[in-house]
Amino acid sequence: MTEPLNPGSHVVEMELEIDQVTIVDPAEATATVRCILGPVRRGARFDHIRDAAEAIDLELTQILAYGRSVEELDPVHTALVTLRGPGVQLLASATPRSGRQVIQGTNPPL
Q1: How far apart are CA 39 and CA 74, in angstroms?
Q2: C-alpha angle with apex 98: 91 to 28, nearest 5 degrees?
Q3: 83: nearest Cα among 109, 52, 110, 104
Q4: Is 3.20.20.80 the CATH number for 14-106?
Q5: pLDDT digits (tens, 9 = 90+) for 53-97
Q6: pTM, 2 dp
Q7: Where are the domains of the chain?
Q8: Which residues, 6 or more positions from 64, have their beta carbon under 8 angstroms from its beta carbon?
């Protein structure tokens, strides 16, 4: 795990870049993502959107790669993921003007 440079700073172990997101209900979203730092494992917790002040607390509950459920997603690969928890309403699909959101967090223990 990456250690923070400054005590109290945010620890980032993995990142997902969001392309498209669908809010299923107030506590669940599905999103097409690309892993840009990882790998990212099922059960990962996301607590931050890069360059955003609002906090999130999302758990990655499913990863579908090429239509198959997988346990982890390696860097540069894309997948459809399910995220659950407070903050899903802050997720947004990419646009030419806003670019893509990047969510950051940590993997569960092995």
Answers
A1: 4
A2: 10
A3: 104
A4: no
A5: 999 999 999 999 999 999 999 999 999 999 999 999 999 999 999
A6: 0.88
A7: 14-106
A8: 70, 79, 80, 81
Tokens of 52: 């955003």
Q: What is the pLDDT of residues 5-38, one digit of tens each?
A: 344 455 679 999 999 999 999 999 999 999 999 9
In three state form, how does the secondary structure of the chain look?
A: CCCCCCCCCCCCCEEEEEEEEEEEECCEEEEEEEEEECCEECCCEEEEECCCCCEEEEEEEEEEECCEECCEECCCCEEEEEEECCCHHHCCCCECCCECCEEEEECCCC
The position carrying tokens 């990212």 is 40
